[in-house]
Write a structure and sequence with these properties.
single chain; alpha+beta; 5-stranded antiparallel sheet; 13 helices
Length: about 290
């Protein structure tokens, strides 16, 4: 998977995830040595020659037409986010790289910090474009047990999920959440492939986490929005919380994440417990 361009690696990885029956082809009775679609099958579905697709995957062809990109996206059954990533990789391979964005601002406006406090008891926090934890209210910080073992500049929620001893135990459906987290980073990489903080984070995780390395090579792409998360918290027990993600204006990609639960439910009671101070963690929000 190391040869060629990022475009070629993306195409090979996504081709391996599509089965012939998914696109109306017969798998046949023989043993298939190739996971997913064969190269000639994808070429036929996309209306290009096998030689042309081979050159795309190997990096010697870097300027497919918009029609070819669209056809490849349809044949590979790409989601809108993944198709956007494909277009970005085509532009990158052709040398049409975007103007690098300025480095991320880690400072969180005082008005946003005030907003975090008004959202209590809902666990709420601010993350950077690479998921660095920049600010949090008390329940938002307590939602991630043990994260304050790390210095503030090291507190990244993706790093926490894959490398912290509590990360795997916190999420009841860790495998699903981990796949979403890696796919979200892929989406962020498409928007700014040379983002220094993201490049450093991915490099660290690929080396230290075999699970992340495997998921990263799948080239799945998913934008991060709202939804639900199931937690098995060591202090407050099981809870299922819905959450929303909101972009903060006039920042370099900062996002505010806030969780909620229906009042009167066990999930809401568990959420309320996160906002209750104890002597051990009474000063948690300081410095975050």
């Amino acid at each position: 998977m190391s040869e060629g361009t990022e475009l070629g690696r993306f195409l090979r990885a996504r081709r391996a995830q599509v089965h012939p029956q998914d696109v109306g082809l017969r798998a046949g009775t023989g043993i298939r040595r190739t996971p997913g679609l064969r190269r000639e099958e994808l070429a036929t579905l996309s209306g290009v020659s096998v030689g042309y697709l081979t050159r795309l995957e190997r990096g010697s062809e870097t300027r497919p037409s918009p029609a070819v990109v669209t056809a490849l996206g349809e044949a590979l059954q790409l989601s809108p986010e993944a198709l956007q990533r494909l277009h970005e990789l085509v532009a990158l391979a052709a040398g049409r790289t975007p103007v690098p964005s300025p480095g991320p601002a880690r400072a969180v406006r005082e008005s946003v910090r005030t907003l975090l406090e008004t959202l209590r008891p809902s666990p709420s926090y601010v993350v950077s474009r690479a998921n660095d934890l920049l600010a949090a209210n008390r329940p938002g910080l307590r939602l991630f047990p043990g994260i304050t073992d790390w210095p503030p500049e090291h507190r990244n929620l993706t790093r926490y999920m894959f490398l912290h001893s509590m990360g795997r135990r916190l999420y009841r459906d860790w495998e699903k959440m981990a796949a979403h987290s890696a796919a979200h980073l892929r989406a962020m990489a498409g928007a700014d492939p040379d983002m220094p903080e993201l490049t450093q984070l991915v490099g660290e995780l690929v080396v230290k986490s075999p699970e992340f390395a495997r998921l990263w090579e799948r080239y799945d792409v998913q934008a991060r929005g709202g939804g639900q998360k199931h937690f098995q918290h060591p202090e407050v027990g099981s809870m299922c919380l819905s959450y929303e993600v909101m972009a903060i204006s006039r920042t370099e990609g900062q996002r505010l994440v806030s969780y909620q639960a229906t009042p009167g439910t066990p999930d809401h009671d568990a959420m309320l417990l996160l906002d209750m101070a104890s002597p051990r963690d009474a000063e948690l929000p300081e410095g975050v």
